[in-house]
Design a protein that fits this description.
The complex is a heterodimer of chains A (about 375) and B (about 375). Chain A has about 375 residues and is of the alpha/beta class. Chain A is about 20% helix and about 30% strand. Helices cover about 60% and strands about 0% of the residues of chain B. The radius of gyration of chain B is 22 Å and the shape is globular. The relative contact order of chain B is 0.16. Classes of the chains: A alpha/beta (about 375), B mainly alpha (about 375). At the A-B interface, α2, β4 and β18 of A face α2, α4 and α8 of B.
Chain lengths: ~375, ~375
Amino acid sequence: MVTAIRRPHWLSRLNAAWAPPAVLDFWLSRLNPLWSWGDARARVVERRPEAEGVTTLVLKPNRHFRGFRAGQHMNIGVEIDGVRYTRSYSASDMPRADGCIRMTVKAVEGGKLGVHLQALAVGSVLQLGQAFGELCVPAGQAPCLMLAAGSGITPMLALVQAQAAAGFPRPVRLAYWARTRAELVQAATLRGLAARHPNFHVHFMLTGETAHAADESAGRIDSHHLATLLPEDGRIHVLACGSHGFVERARALLHSRCLSFQSEAFSPPPRVVDASDEGHVRVTLLQTGRTLDIARNKSLLEALEEQGIKPRHGCRMGICNTCSCGKPSGATRALHDRSVQHEPTQALRLCMHAAQSDLSLEL
Amino acid sequence: MPKIKSRALSPEELDRFGEELDALRARTLATLGQGDADYIRRIVAGVRWLGLGGRVVLMAGAILGGTVLPSLLWPLCILGTVLLGLAKILENMELGHNVMHGQFDWMGDPALQGRSYEWDIVGTSDNWRKTHNYSHHTWTNVRGMDDDIGYGLLRIFPEQRWKPFYLMQPAIAVVFALLFEWGVALQDLRIGRWFAGKMTGRALWKMATPVVKKIGKQTLKDYVLFPLLAGPFFLPVLLGNIVANVIRNIWTYVIIFCGHFTADAEVFPRESVVNETRGHWYLRQLRGSSNLTGGRLMNLWSGNLSHQIEHHFYPDVPANRYASMAVEVREICARYGQHYNTGSLPRQFGTVVWRILRHAFPSKPGPARPLMAAG
């Protein structure tokens, strides 16, 4: 999350003495759940089905949200059964005059948050992070090729809308892979734009159905497909968004024709990590910027100490909470019952958990 | 001398005792969810509403009582002060103390994170997390390791060496109760070490800086800003804030002293924790802690320290679960022949007062009460 660090105004410091932000937030959210002293939040003002398993939410942020550019994403936090879950989603439309954010959410099998977001009632309030991400259409006149697979379409929709608002000053071609026609998001809108703007072309690539329409093809990403999308000569800007495998394949295939290659790969849904405790994993310590390999067969605290890191700690038996630190990514295994946790957490007790996969820690 | 009520356990029994208590913990943690989140948010709401109510009534009493309705001065100021005192008790005990143990970390709510929560008391949360969460909870009632045994001021157990200084402790104990939050604030600074020349002034100042900042902030809020709001009628507001803090001090002192200093509570020598097993740790927590009866009201207003035993077994389990866990804990303790130390507040605190009076004078430890059977 991007947050500017600035020294608070003396008035707000005096105010903090009367009532700390937590107290102010309590009263403000009683008046209006969207209000907060310092946190960005958003209210769901509209929900509409978009395609099979896909829903678009229109979010109205409060004044603490500092805006976004087309192609950026932001963290959304909701509470499910008492636990706050956070995921980042791209805006699926460019910034509009009403200040609302459109987000297109897919229900992933086994993904709690997507399912929950799709069922959210209009009027619900969500936690919202500041926008981040570098994906953008580069300056200049060179043609631009956008490649999207599955949910990877969302930032591309925003970028295409931003280009449309500018009247497509350069050639833009979008290739969009999906399993079936029913899963395509905003196909009609994209076709409409392509019909109105000679500089914009859209191609739908279906991996689970046969192609019928003129702008449809079948099959996964390959050199044959890409050959039909590329101009005869000259170099192009490429933007790709999809699974890790998709993005890497696109990069390899287009390597020689790119002026620039920007990509965003969304992480796959939590995979089942083998339950063994052998071998080593890579740990990134975010505050000190160190990366090291540690053993999986002992507590994170012991494994880090073995590598010469001295995290602050107390009882070493899970009582005092002194060693707890944030874990934004990666899987850990609880030593007492071997259960595996994939969710990011703000408080992981290092003495009671072992590393299960590569992970990052706020140390 | 209290008679021996609990038997020593064999190493195998200790292991099984620990496993049964661990299993109860795992079963409880597996069921945490919306109900617990709703509970702690209700407590937050209670703290906020009581605090607002107390401050508004106190302010109204001061201003109305000082102008048009003098007859309302005392009733409103007393009511406001009591409400404010209750707000502080609820915040310190059921909210702050439990949240700082990390009991609600699993919710992922930044406002309820154990590592960052700051409570409404002059002591800093950081010092508390060290002296209480670590020292006291890990080394509960181990002499020389748990500073909370008499807080370095009082002789509670005959095992503590007697000094003539302790003759004054009945009076010291009363002053300590009135100023309890200041004792907590200064506990970790160990100013005694500076007096004794074991710590430089510079080192003391470095440790004291965050404490001084927190004291300044609390003093500014309770004793300057809120009284100033009442303008010329600041005096009743100032006095109300002072009394509310003192009410909180006395109540927390009474509850906390009942947790580990009752007649049946035991202290342990340093040797007892060498290579301590999980089962032995549980048994030591049990023998060193005592509960209070009194039902749901007592549970709420004591911050569930009425279940001190369960709290020491499971300091990171949400406190609203202790009452239901206690049924099983009690049954396990009975099966292993262990005394489950509980009683009404007057009875338990009575035995604490007796200890303070009795051990002001020289006294000898009773027969040893081993945790583990030899062999």
